[in-house]
Amino acid sequence: MNSRCHPDLTTSSPRGHGRLPRPSPGNALKKIPYFDIQLHLREWHRFVLPLFIVVAAILMILFLVARTSDKSPAYDWDPENQARIGLIRAGEDAIFDPAFAVPSPIEMVTAPTADHFESPVGSRLGALTYNAQPFLTNRHLGDDFNGIGGWNSDLGDPVYAAADGLVIYAGWPVDGWGNIVILLHELVDGTQIQSSYAHLDSMSVPVGRQVRRGDKLGTIGTANGNYLAHLHFELRTSPSLDVGSGYADSKLGRLSGELALKKWRKREDTELVSAPKGEALPPTSLQLDIEEVDSTN
User: Fold this and answer.
1) How many helices (H) and strands (E) does the chain have?
2) What gap in Å lies between CA 231 and CA 273, rounded to an integer?
3) What residues have CB less than 8 Å from 165, skipping those under 6 apart?
4) Cα angle for residues 143, 144, 146 (degrees, 5° grid)
5) Are 217 and 207 in contact (CB under 8 A)?
6) Pairing with 204, which of 16, 218, 253, 290 sits 20 to 30 Å away (CA)?
7) How do 129-133 and 88-89 pair as beta strands?
8) pTM greater than 0.90
9) 81 near 172, Cβ under 8 Å?
10) What DSSP letter does each residue of 107-123 carry, written as one string?
């Protein structure tokens, strides 16, 4: 029988070894599959993404464990550095960020009322000194008071409290500042401000002491030779104890020390005023008006 008349019959292989089935429409050769990006993404979400999340979580846990077990560098502490965070005094091994340090509530309540301000250096009229770099000159956030002799002629001269206040900081925060004393004052209207005395060669008062206007806080210094001798004086409205930077593009809560001293002093320019004696005025919060009760009724 002629196989050509019967398409369903098998044919011989080219080499004659066995027979191959004749291709049929249902047994056609499959096409080579193309790269299906959507299928690829679905598979990736099913297998790779969960694995990635698990690995990332394990690495995060290991990082947190290593970080908590590692001893973080402690704040540069010394016995004279009495910076505090609220009511809690920073211990020797405390992780201390001065940006979050504020006077304690007790300090804010007990700060004496300052009803008169005077120059912190020079004579009782602020003589024999000049302002070498006024407030906001060259982005300067304070006033640099120098002796009229220039250079280091005022090195070791006394620095006085500009007004009645409470010592809330006395220490050496960084080399660029040297010794700093910060006083907390309460103005007659109840507003609280801070006066800062920087680059001191020595300090004479501890934290917690109430001082009167004219009391010696320390002596003019050079911040361990970083500058010529002068007093960097600041008045701050910010409650933070962070010493911060002495230069900035904005005031950062500072006031012009020279102008404020002239505004808040109760005397004429030619009048001499002696340092006060006795106890400082109590804070406004403790000045209570108590009515006397007639005991005869």
Assistant:
1) 4, 14
2) 22
3) 111, 112, 114, 183, 184, 185, 195, 210, 211
4) 140
5) no
6) 253
7) unpaired
8) no
9) yes
10) HHHHPPB------SSSS
Q: Return the residue matching tokens 């500009």.
A: 162
> What's the CA gap between 9 and 4, in Å, rounded?
9
Of 226, 232, 267, 239, which is closest to residue 118 (Cα–Cα)?
267
Q: What residues does each domain of the chain span?
A: 34-70, 84-280
DSSP symbol at 277: -
What are the pLDDT digits (tens) for 142-184? 898 888 777 788 888 899 999 999 999 888 888 888 899 999 9
Instruction: Using the structure block, give the residue that is written with the tokens 């120098």.
Output: 146
CB atoms within 10 A of CB 166: 24
The percent helix, strand, coil of the chain (3-state, each to 5) is: 20, 25, 55
Give the class (CATH, top level) of 84-280.
mainly beta
User: In the chain, which residues have pLDDT < 50?
Assistant: 1-13, 16, 70-87, 125, 288, 290, 293
